[in-house]
Design brief:
Elements lengths: L10 E5 L2 E4 L4 E4 L2 H4 L8 H11 L12 H14 L3 E5 L2 H18 L6 E5 L8 H6 L3 H4 L9 E4 L4 H10 L3 E6 L15 H12 L2 E5 L23 E4 L10 E5 L20 H16 L2 H19 L6 E7 L2 E6 L6 H7 L2 E2 L1 E3 L3 E4 L7 H16 L1
Parallel strand pairs: 3-13, 5-6, 5-7, 7-8, 8-9
Antiparallel strand pairs: 1-2, 2-3, 4-10, 9-10, 11-12, 12-15, 14-15
Length: 382
């Protein structure tokens, strides 16, 4: 169906930070499938895990115990500080699970019209619930009536959240991205998440963090909330967890971890042996190769170089980032920039019309990073 405005290129092979098209051209990938292939393309340990599992067992269903899934849940809980995990296939499904948990909590507490606070500029998915939760009118358009049960606030505005707390007794949770991804790589104040945590504790709300894009070492910590030292009640992730194999996860702790019981929720494919084998390989590489440290250091290096090389470019408003989640905000929209970069052998993304979004491989080396900076600054200066 006509759901994508595709670029005129067909990729047939990938290796590390590079993709090759069907005409033999090479491209430096600074988008990684929109923050999915964090370890680059065709990573040998992921490929080996998929091959081995593909010759052993692909799927049995969640009617039975899945040892790979149990062990993966244990590893993710150890990394996150959560108690248990629901596995699914995507970030939207993980966020859908979180929203259902919040509503279940409200109804069990006698609140039969529970609502979730969401923020402007957010993106949570394309299902009806996650689409409604998304803070972007363009995503909503044409799909009305939207679901009820959501209260909207500006991003990075604690006073607005406190005002909702003072005036809306039906709220049961807050759902927010630690860094707005599709919204333009907007990084909140250092005290934003701790202040949200404090309000949620005072009100008895669940703090639910959407780490679909920010998780799995993207920002230099395994989860972005670990930069602030505060712990959510629910955290969702997907994208980089499988390095290209679809897998999502909704993690919870405390009261939230006990909300679902058999019959409340499920997934046919979620957490099957193949997807979990891929995720185990990803976690092995993240741990063994200090990918968090690499992402943090290389991200700082790229941001510094971009700021230096773009000094004096009057089209550039700001360069910002955390780890390998980087944005160059322009004063004006740049509708041809993605196509122009493609012609230069570089894959980037422009979100919100004027924000160049870079989501490079987390293990990008210095030479590749220098090539990225050189190609992009040449393009922007041109």
């Amino acid at each position: 169906m006509n759901t994508y405005g595709r670029l005129p290129v067909s990729f047939v092979k990938g290796s590390g930070a590079y993709l090759h098209d069907d005409k033999g051209n090479e491209y430096l990938d600074a988008l990684t499938g929109i923050a999915v292939c964090g370890l680059g393309h065709a990573h040998p340990r992921v490929a080996s895990a998929l091959s081995d599992q593909g010759q052993t067992l692909l799927h049995t269903s969640n009617l039975y115990d899945i040892p790979h899934q149990t062990r993966l849940a244990e590893r993710l809980c150890a990394l996150s500080g959560m108690d248990n995990v629901f596995f699914c296939n995507s970030g939207a499904e993980a966020n859908e699970a979180a929203i259902k948990m919040a509503r279940l909590k409200g109804n069990r507490d006698g609140n039969h019209n529970p609502s979730v606070v969401v923020v402007d500029g957010s993106f949570h998915g394309r299902t009806m619930a996650t689409l409604t939760a998304t803070g972007n009118r363009k995503v909503h358009a044409g799909f009305e009536p939207l679901l009820s049960g959501f209260v909207r606030a500006p991003f990075n505005d604690i006073a607005a959240i406190q005002a909702i707390a003072d005036n809306n007794p039906g709220v049961v949770a807050v759902l927010v991205e630690p860094i707005l991804g599709e919204g333009g790589i907007h990084i909140p104040d250092d005290n934003y998440l701790p202040a949200l945590r404090n309000i949620c504790d005072q009100q008895g709300w669940l703090l639910m963090l959407d780490e679909v894009q920010t998780g799995n070492a993207r920002t230099g910590k395994y989860f972005a909330y670990q930069h602030s030292g505060c712990l959510p009640d629910v955290v969702t992730t997907a994208k980089g967890l499988g390095n290209g194999v679809p897998i999502g996860a909704c993690l919870a702790r405390g009261e939230a971890a006990e909300l679902f019981v058999p019959g409340n929720h499920g997934s046919t494919f979620g957490g099957n042996p193949l997807a979990c084998a891929a995720a185990h390989a990803v976690l092995d590489v993240i741990e063994d190769d200090n990918i968090c440290g690499q992402a943090e250091a290389q991200g700082k290096r790229i941001v510094s170089a971009l700021r230096s090389e773009l000094t004096g470019n009057n089209a550039v408003k700001e360069v910002r980032g955390l780890g390998m989640m980087i944005a160059i905000e322009l004063y004006d929209d740049a509708p041809s920039l993605v196509s122009d970069a493609l012609s230069d052998g570089l894959l980037i993304n422009v979100t919100q019309g004027n924000i160049v979004r870079l989501l490079p491989p987390l293990n990008m080396n210095d030479q590749e990073a220098d090539e990225l900076v050189s190609k992009l600054t040449d393009l922007l200066n041109r």
